Amino acid sequence: MTALADCETTANCQPVALSDVPVLDQDDFAGHLADELHGNASGLSALFGVPESKHSVRLYAVTNHQTTGQLHVIATDVGEKYPSLTPSIPQAHWFEREIAEQWGVVPVGHPWLKPIRSHHSYVRGRDAWGRSPDDEILPCVQPAGTDYFKVTGDEAHEVAVGPVHAGVIEPGHFRFQCHGENVFSLEIELGFQHRGIEQALIGGPDKRSLHHMETLAGDTTVGHGTAYCQLLEGLAGVEAPLRAQAIRCVAMEYERLANHTGDLGALATDVGFLPTSSFCGRLRGDWLNATALICGNRFGRSLARPGGSRWDIDDAMAEELVKRTQAAFRDVTGAVELLWSTTTVMARFEGCGEVPRDVADDLGLVGMAGRACGIDRDARRDFPFGIYRFAQVPVGVWHTGDVFARAYVRWLEIQRSVPFILDQLQALPRGDVQRDIGLLQPDALTVSITEGWRGEICHVAITDSESRFAHYKIVDPSFHNWIGLAMALRNQEISDFPVNNKSFNLSYCGHDL
């Protein structure tokens, strides 16, 4: 067992000197992470590689510790290959596949080593499967030796869905292995529109950096925008005015309300229950319009700015927002409670798509997907940021891990976000909403964590000697949770895929960065 002293301990948005991050040998690095993450005692917020030379990549791991509110950072250097962490640390499985694709480093012993996107930034001119940037790489074409998982036998069959879908959703491929209607395995393939956002951030911050943050997952504009702004403020040693912090957090809760309300309506649609479906489709717009009243944009773009908020809320606007919030919540309550009192809806929700608690722990599910399995984690409480340091939102947790739980946690969060918003609007701190942040700390590493509506958002920035971004890593909650959807479909009827998919409602674009 490695000692706690072998890691650099920091706090949310608190920079550390890059030279203070301990670089362990590979065995100690793996042992330290295994000890910390055993039984989901802490979470793996980020695991990523940074090239040190043509022959060496430095792996950084960021773990979060709920009981102490601390973040731990460690590193190790690897060459062309290293022993995979995944067999002893399942939370690392998706991260290691990404590292293999980005930097050509092979995690030997990884149980299912396949690409997850289409990268073109190989440190040695090729990825772990021998592909180079000069090759025409199609995400739907598997490299040799990495075929899709297949079930064989009498009456076993395969169903492939996507990546092109019949609606306006983004591309993703779902491959089911079935026996009759029963799903044995679902394999999810993403990465059809890798946009190179992380790569584009290197050399920043610049005028486009915040635009990238606000559009990397459009339904989480405020969540990612706030994470970025707090990261810059931490690097500059500046705190945004309290009034701006309150406005940001109010906008984050409106973002949560809009998405949870829309999802509850969509879940009703997927089981053919039109009353809640119709009401929630309209009511989602009420929450979005509240955000637009603050900043002129329904998705919250242009609201959060490094050093504060671009927009203020005056007394008249606050009063109007209170009225709108109370009215919308009253209508949402009526629409959503129809779900719980309708036996046909409950028959479809309960017991459908269960993810057992031990599986959720092993995979490190975050946000409402994790809380629906009984994982009592929420960055607003555990790693408080902004006004959440002074006014907390109670955490909503359920235990059954099924579609009902994922729907019900949304309802719990709606009920708890509304009083928070009303309290903040009626007692906004006085003062300015913006201040200059000045120069960023050079040669430093900073971690910024927020709780988006899907779950934990993690941004990690490494600055160079000129205070520019030498590396920027973004982990959207969907990156943790897509595998949870695959687990939820095991031993389910294939016809239950739509309602399970919506119960997670994960981001394609937030994954493909």
- Shape field: globular
Average pLDDT metric: 93
Report how far apart the termini are: 35 Å
Task: Flag low-confidence runs.
Answer: none
The structural class is: alpha+beta
Radius of gyration: 22 Å
Q: What are the key terms here?
A:
16 strands, 513 residues, 4-stranded antiparallel sheet, 5-stranded mixed sheet, 15 helices, alpha+beta
Compact summary:
This protein is α+β, with helices and mostly antiparallel strands and 513 residues long.
What this model shows, in words?
By secondary structure, the protein is of the alpha+beta class. Helices cover 38% and strands 18% of the residues. The chain contains 15 helices and 16 strands. The radius of gyration is 22 Å and the shape is globular. It starts with 7 loop residues before the first strand and ends in a 9-residue tail after the last helix.
